[in-house]
Amino acid sequence: MSSNKLLFSAGLAGLLGVALGAFGAHALHDVLAERQTVALWQTAVLYHLVHAVALLGLAGWAPGTDSRLPTCLNAAAACWISGMVLFSGSLYGMALGAPRAFGWITPVGGLLLLAGWSLIAMHGWRARL
Hints:
The chain is mainly α and about 130 residues long. About 80% of the residues lie in helices and about 0% in strands. Helix 1 runs antiparallel to helix 3, helix 3 runs antiparallel to helix 4 and helix 4 runs antiparallel to helix 5. The longest helix is centred in the middle third of the chain and has 25 residues. It is elongated.
């Protein structure tokens, strides 16, 4: 993935994370409180924003706008993007009333987030930091 695409992904993820956080705190507050799912929404936003910032860090890795990341870092970015969609997305859905069976998606997203961090560690190990 080029640094431009990664920067776009990081910006979009950050924008959506902040917007969904504000939406949950204000427009959806009563709905989430009634469903007792405020904590689900907050967890989704937290993981969403943390990984948006992590993507931004990876975007800064490649010096040129068309530069590509090393293979492990590129795979980490893909895992984080997919993981954010599945992990946070499933929590957002359940907080708004999606069936609890929808929850099987959450651990798949969590495993993708973990895989991304593992790939970062693998890249560092290979570089012998």
